[in-house]
């Protein structure tokens, strides 16, 4: 078959055009996809930012007075009935409650008394009819929203009692500033009051978590959930639920001084107690030899299983391990010393008691002990005339025995 020169020229030109322009078209298509993905990312980013700002607006209520803490926190004095708890539809009708008036008469603020709440070192307190709330920062909301792509591991060493109905728990909690390896990890010492299924839980104690609070100081905290930590509840006042009544105690602020290995030991008193009359679960706090201060309460309307009584009480320490490498975290529990090191070196909770009826407290009846990884964190307990029911606990985390 013969081809004339014009036809051959046409074929060669067509091949050139296809060879030259197809990659350009492909590049344009690829660039178009990148532009679309970038626009989609920007839209998603703007949506998240809008959501975060809306959350901050809901949490950080308008302040009557603002106090700058010596340790960097901003404390907003918010009108009692304007606090986040009353955003919850279940509590709308309780806005006119005289709960604060009832507790203030019982807990007079004495500026000359010893106070392990470091925010009050400035000598300032919130005015009457207001409560102090630590202002939440944008970074804290982002941390709360962060999706962890690797398996979160939780390690606890606890003593516990279960079965019969309990109406309260109290103890004296030793304060430390444990080393925390990862800014998103946490280490805490606390008391848990739970339903038998552990689906419903209220907790309080001290906690170190840099991402949540901005530093590595031990801070007093509360937590609650009614669905086994899945979707409900939050820390402190960062969602509707816990009703604050105290003008003296600020949740989420540092406590101190902290204990020193082989040196002075510092602690505070904590009590979670159910009111027989209205079935509220009250949180009470005391530093040194002070009288208990009623911090606030979890309303009975939050719960189903904890409405009448608790069936499980726990005391001890907890470490959240987010180490993505698979190795155990080197985050300390307590002082970082094992329980066997005992007084002056290991963390402790002493004078532990449970209420078998409202206001009737007894020493822990036949307590059980749980240590999930004893080569990493350990616990031991007993009874003493001075310390009554007590536990020592803690550990350094990762080591040769705890890889």
Automatic annotation (TrEMBL):
It comes from the Eukaryota. It holds the Pfam family Neprosin_AP. The keyword Membrane applies. The keyword Flavoprotein does not apply. Residues 148-403 form the Neprosin PEP catalytic domain. The chain crosses the membrane at residues 7-27. Keywords: Membrane, Transmembrane, Transmembrane helix. This is Neprosin PEP catalytic domain-containing protein.
């Amino acid at each position: 078959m013969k081809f004339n020169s014009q036809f051959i020229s046409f074929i060669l030109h067509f091949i050139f055009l296809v060879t030259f322009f197809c990659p350009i078209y492909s590049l344009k298509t690829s660039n178009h996809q990148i532009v679309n993905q970038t626009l989609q990312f920007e839209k998603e980013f703007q949506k998240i930012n809008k959501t975060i700002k809306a959350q901050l607006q809901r949490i950080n209520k308008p302040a009557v007075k603002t106090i700058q803490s010596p340790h960097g926190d901003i404390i907003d004095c918010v009108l009692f009935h304007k606090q986040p708890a009353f955003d919850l539809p279940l509590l709308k009708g309780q806005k006119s409650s005289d709960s604060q008036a009832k507790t203030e008469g019982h807990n007079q603020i004495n500026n000359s008394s010893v106070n392990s709440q470091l925010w009050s070192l400035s000598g300032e307190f919130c005015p009457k009819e207001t409560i102090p709330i630590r202002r939440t920062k944008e970074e804290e909301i982002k941390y709360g929203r962060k999706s962890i792509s690797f398996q979160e591991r939780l390690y606890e060493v606890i003593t516990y009692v279960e079965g019969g109905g309990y109406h309260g728990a109290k103890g004296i909690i030793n304060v430390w500033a444990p080393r925390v390896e990862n800014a998103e990890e946490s280490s805490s010492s606390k008391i848990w009051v739970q339903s038998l299924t552990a689906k419903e839980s209220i907790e309080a104690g001290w906690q170190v978590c840099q991402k949540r609070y901005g530093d590595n100081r031990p801070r007093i905290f509360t937590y609650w959930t009614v669905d086994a930590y899945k979707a409900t509840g939050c820390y402190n006042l960062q969602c509707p639920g816990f009703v604050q009544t105290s003008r003296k105690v600020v949740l989420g602020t540092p406590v101190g001084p902290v204990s020193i290995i082989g040196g002075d030991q510092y602690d505070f008193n904590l009590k979670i107690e159910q009111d027989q009359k209205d079935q509220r679960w009250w949180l009470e706090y005391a530093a040194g030899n002070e009288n208990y201060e009623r911090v606030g309460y979890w309303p009975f309307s939050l719960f189903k299983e904890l409405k009448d009584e608790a069936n499980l009480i726990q005391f001890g320490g907890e470490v959240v391990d987010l180490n993505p490498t698979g190795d155990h975290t080197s985050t300390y529990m307590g002082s970082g010393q094992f329980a066997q090191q005992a007084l002056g070196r290991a963390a402790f909770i002493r004078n532990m008691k449970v209420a078998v009826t409202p206001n009737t407290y007894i020493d822990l009846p036949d307590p059980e002990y749980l240590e999930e990884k004893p080569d990493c964190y350990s616990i031991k307990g007993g009874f003493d005339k001075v310390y009554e029911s007590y536990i020592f606990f803690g550990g350094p985390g990762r080591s040769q025995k705890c890889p």
